Amino acid sequence: MSFVQNLPFISIILSLFSGPFSSILSGKWAKRVNYTVMLLIGLMNLLVFQFVLQTGESYVYMMGHFPAPWGNEIRVGVLEAFLAVFFCCIMFLCMIGGEKDREEYVESGKMNLYYIMVNLLLCSLLALIYTNDIFTAYVFVEINTISACGLIMIRQNGRTLEASMRYMIMSLLGSGLLLLGICFLYDLTGQLLMSNIKEAVLQVSHLPEYRMPLMVSLGFISVGLAIKSALYPFHTWLPDAYGYSTVSSAAILSSLVSKGYIFLLIKIFYRVIGFDIIEKSKVIHILFVFGIAGMIMGSLSAIQENNIRRMIAYSSVAQIGYIYMGFGLGTTAGFTASIYHIFSHAATKSLLFVAASGITDASGDSTTFSDLTGAGFRNKLAGIAFTVGSLSMVGFPMFSGFISKILFAQAAVGHTYKILPTFIALAISTILNAIYFMKTVIRLYTPDKKNKGRCIRIMDEKRKSLALLLFIVLNFILGLSSEPIIHIIEMGLGMIA
Amino acid sequence: MNVVNLLQNYEEAVAMILFGIGFSNLLLQKNLIKKIVGLNIMDTATYLFLALKGYIKGRKAPIVVGGVQSVKAYINPIPSGLVLTGIVVSVSVTALMLSLTIRLYRRYHTLDLDEISIRLRREGL
Predict the structure, then answer these.
(1) CA–CA separation, A168 and A411 (whole Å)
(2) Model confidence over A389-447: pLDDT tens digits?
(3) Chain A closest CA to B26's CA: distance in Å?
(4) In whole angstroms, what is the distance from residue A37 CA to residue A342 CA?
(5) What gap in Å lies between CA A449 and CA A304, rounded to an integer?
(6) Which residues of chain A from 138 to 197 reach within 8 Å of chain B, CB to CB?
(7) Low-confidence winner among A98-107, A189-198, A219-228, A337-346 (lowest mean pLDDT)
(8) Contact, A60 vs A74, CB < 8 A?
(9) Crossing angle, helix A419-444 and helix A308-329, to 10 degrees?
(10) How far apart are CA A113 and CA A96, in angstroms?
């Protein structure tokens, strides 16, 4: 066994322990530790990615001394390693992009607590990505929820307190259902490791008395994770949570936390239940319907919104709808498109949140649209970044959103009766996206002499400018050279089962 | 046939009914404390279900007293371990919810979540 194979485990443990370690540090040092750990973990996972890409097959890492049916395991494939690297990059950029905003809104004595939450969040995301044990996944889902709640309420006003309460309530409903689904699965199969459950499921799935319980547990798990990742009817907590927390919290929550749950669902579909059963089950039809409803309703709510942060938050609801619609197609092409959209949405939504904070800074900290007029001239880089993000969300060619929309359309083509609803929903949602994003961009570039907002030059906030530039570059990379990434996703989906 | 099945497995049925009660309380109650009570009922129902599934009639907990007996003397310890882990999770989540409730109560002097939303809107925050 080569040393590189240990790195996923080391990265989980490193981020887990740097959390408590930060509690005894001052805010400044906690920040340094946090940034170093994030970069280090990104680098380590890059090595792992390269290793798995070279060997061309996934490997199982045994935790402790007990072999398969009893011990705990980590399983690493191409997609997992790539996702880990990508999450580290996005999280790092979100953190440096929101640095100034954090110092403004978080009490100075409590700054290190913020970094504890970020470290724990990173740890739980990595564990969700890598783990091969379904109960470990449940425990880390809860850690993820608690640290995300901490990230929301660290900016203290009534709104964030109420938002984190609502977030906790919906999340706990979701994790209750998830736990019950996992208990059913354990009851049916007697196994906790994902690959072993699949073997047992394959043995019993053709027996009529097992069909119903299997579907019930699959339903519980899907609905539980859908609630936690804010699929349409369960999105009520989302606008407040994203709209009023600090910028880095909002960016991390929208682009990473919900994606962690979605990736867990993908793993459960492929590795635990098996794709053949998923294809025939009716659960994916339900996900399809709610995904389409989310695409349209999320955009409609975003159009009515008068607050730029909340508008971006509602747009997240629509984008999560896209991802679930891809699952609902029930083909490998649909899943590929969904995973590509995970990447594209993560890169774009965090860009939009950070750019929006630059825009509101240049408009006297106001988030209402009437005060934002002409902000694109006052803060040039944030204006450009917001435009790039908007074009990507709308699906303009050259940007990442365009590729994911093409992939969704291609995936739908092979389908007999889902092709029409998919195309109609894609068309309507694109128009709605264009309405609210272009409305904002036009407002940003309408000159307004009376506005008293201050001008911010690129060199005034070096770190935020750097983060915005890197986000823009990332968006172009995803949009212009999508072939290798799609190849990685297809290879990873082959390895995941 | 189905009714007989249900009566024979009445423990599981009770666990599911309790889960439903807890779930709907957590979702629908206005009062925050009642919501938290609902959360605990829901979690406990899951643990009841797990513990039932791990128990085999006439066998003991796998704790060795006076030499190891045959495998058939003990129950499966894994569900009990899962219940313990689950209890730890639900205790910490409950503590977090309660502390949030205290914060909200100090600020708004009410436990009604809808009332808090109305006041927030009036504050124009």
Answers:
(1) 35
(2) 999 999 888 899 999 999 999 999 878 888 899 999 999 999 999 999 999 999 999 88
(3) 7
(4) 24
(5) 27
(6) 139, 142, 145-146, 149, 153, 157-159, 161-162, 164-166, 168-169, 172-173, 176-177, 179-180, 183, 186-187, 192
(7) A98-107
(8) yes
(9) 160
(10) 17
DSSP label at residue A454: P
Residues of B in contact with A145 (CB under 8 A): 93
Q: Is residue B1 very low, low, confident or very high in pLDDT (cuts 50, 70, 90)?
A: low
Quick one: which of A283, A262, A433, A231 has its CA closest to A339?
Answer: A262
- Cross-strand partners of B60: B74
Nearest Cα of chain B lies from the Cα of A408 at a distance, in angstroms, of 34
Kindly list the distances between the CA atom of residue A88 and the CA atoms of A15, A38, A83, in Å, as whole numbers in the listed order. 11, 6, 9
Task: Write out the two tokens for B99.
Answer: 């502390």
Residues of B engaging A, defined by a Cβ cutoff of 8 Å: 19, 22-23, 26-27, 32, 35, 39, 42-43, 46, 49-50, 53, 78-79, 82, 85-86, 89, 92-93, 96-97, 100-101, 103-104, 107-108, 113, 116-117, 119-120, 123, 125
ipTM reported for the complex, 2 dp:
0.94
Q: What are phi and psi of A40, to 5 degrees?
A: -60, -45
Cβ neighbours of B103 in A, within 8 Å: 153, 161
Q: Which amino acid belongs to residue A48? A: V
Name every chain B residue with its beta carbon within 8 A of the beta carbon of A157. 125
Q: How far is CA A210 from the centre of its chain?
A: 34
Q: Fill in the DSSP letter of residue A370.
A: G
Instruction: Please say whether the beta carbons of B104 and A162 come within 8 A.
Output: yes
Using the beta-carbon criterion (under 8 Å), do B23 and A176 form an inter-chain contact? yes
Q: Which residue of B has its CA nearest to A70?
A: B78
Task: With CB atoms and an 8 Å threshold, state whether B125 touches A183.
Answer: no
Residues 6+ apart with CB under 8 A from A46: A85
Greater model confidence, B69 or A358: A358
User: Which two tokens mark A235?
Assistant: 């999105």
Helix (H) or strand (E) holding A59: strand A59-63
Residue with tokens 């630059």, as numbered in its chain:
A358
What is the pLDDT, as a whole number, of residue A384?
93
Least CB-CB distance to B120: which of A135, A162, A172? A162
Does B113 contact A166 at a Cβ distance shorter than 8 Å? yes
pLDDT > 90: percent of chain B: 50
Which residues, other chains included, contact B55 with Cβ-Cβ below 8 Å and sequence gap of 6+? B75
Q: CB count, 10 Å around CB of A396?
A: 16
Hey, what are B47's tokens?
A: 């643990």
Residues of A in contact with B26 (CB under 8 A): 169, 172-173, 176
